[in-house]
Amino acid sequence: MSNLEQDPQESVCGGLADVAAEPVSELLIGRDVVLGGPRGMKVTRTLPNRDIRMVGAWCFVDHYGPEKATMRVAPHPHTGLQTVSWLLEGEVLHRDSVGSEQLIRPGQLNLMTAGRAISHSEESPSEVELHGVQLWVALPSADREVAPAFEHHAALPTLTAPGVRVTVIMGELGGAVSPARIHSPLVGAEVTLDAGGEILLPLRPDFEYAALALSGEVRVDRTDLDPGPLLYLGTGRSGLTLRAERPGRVLLLGGEPFEEEIVMWWNFVGRSHEEITRFRREWMEGGEFGTVTGVNDPPLRAPELPAVPMKPRGRRR
């Protein structure tokens, strides 16, 4: 999914400064963003956040729905990242410039690696009940120039406990390993709890973690978490208890703190203002981003760049 804001603000993320060196419970309040104009679909964006911009390599989190809506995002570019599409309800058709055309359904993973340059579109076949999350993973410098690629995984590994099912979307958790290709140590998992369900998830103390309630209310550690804010959990945890009095779902994100500082603007992840300027120019001039076929809508135009250069400012504002 694209960042469709017409006046996107740059976000400089990453680096090891200000990574919580111990377990914490910090609620990060998201902001509402409307995709596609006043009649577009509303999402809640919790990363990048005013207070914390990354969790491991996870650098962008949009949660949308449940809402009866039509998703229609025209072809747009990405660089330096992976997009992770995860649905709870509805259907979304993905097309991209490497020739992929894939319908994603709930419980399936669409993973697109932008690498040096890719473009894609997304649309729901009709007005449907849509509920899902769109996530971005920043690629480390060693891999951010890789060739663009797309993966679809209809079946993913799971962990189970009485009243609990854990789907490992990315990375590894409790010995269950996702088949999705990753470029830095991280994990993404959906935890579905029935009423009365409880589980102790094994964590890595060297990872930082965050949790996002997708539905219901789930007690994460000692915090009752409703859909909306992202709960930042810091590092130093070997386990995390989740329990629910009524059915609920939680997205767990984690990873080794990302050492590099990155600059995010619109749909690009780079390392400097000059790089972002070049990415924008190449998109507008038809550079390496390729063509998405089978789509009637013209490609999105890039917004104007900020008036001042984008500069690193660390993980926290």
TrEMBL record:
<feature type="binding site">
    <location>
        <position position="76"/>
    </location>
    <ligand>
        <name>Fe cation</name>
    </ligand>
</feature>
<feature type="domain" description="Pirin C-terminal">
    <location>
        <begin position="189"/>
        <end position="286"/>
    </location>
</feature>
<feature type="binding site">
    <location>
        <position position="122"/>
    </location>
    <ligand>
        <name>Fe cation</name>
    </ligand>
</feature>
<dbReference type="GO" id="GO:0046872">
    <property type="term" value="F:metal ion binding"/>
</dbReference>
<dbReference type="InterPro" id="IPR008778">
    <property type="entry name" value="Pirin_C_dom"/>
</dbReference>
<dbReference type="InterPro" id="IPR012093">
    <property type="entry name" value="Pirin"/>
</dbReference>
<dbReference type="Pfam" id="PF05726">
    <property type="entry name" value="Pirin_C"/>
</dbReference>
<protein>
    <recommendedName>
        <fullName>Pirin</fullName>
    </recommendedName>
</protein>
<dbReference type="InterPro" id="IPR014710">
    <property type="entry name" value="RmlC-like_jellyroll"/>
</dbReference>
<dbReference type="Pfam" id="PF02678">
    <property type="entry name" value="Pirin"/>
</dbReference>
<keyword id="KW-0479">Metal-binding</keyword>
<feature type="binding site">
    <location>
        <position position="120"/>
    </location>
    <ligand>
        <name>Fe cation</name>
    </ligand>
</feature>
<dbReference type="InterPro" id="IPR011051">
    <property type="entry name" value="RmlC_Cupin_sf"/>
</dbReference>
<feature type="binding site">
    <location>
        <position position="78"/>
    </location>
    <ligand>
        <name>Fe cation</name>
    </ligand>
</feature>
<feature type="domain" description="Pirin N-terminal">
    <location>
        <begin position="41"/>
        <end position="137"/>
    </location>
</feature>
<feature type="region of interest" description="Disordered">
    <location>
        <begin position="292"/>
        <end position="317"/>
    </location>
</feature>
<keyword id="KW-0408">Iron</keyword>
<comment type="similarity">
    <text>Belongs to the pirin family.</text>
</comment>
<dbReference type="InterPro" id="IPR003829">
    <property type="entry name" value="Pirin_N_dom"/>
</dbReference>
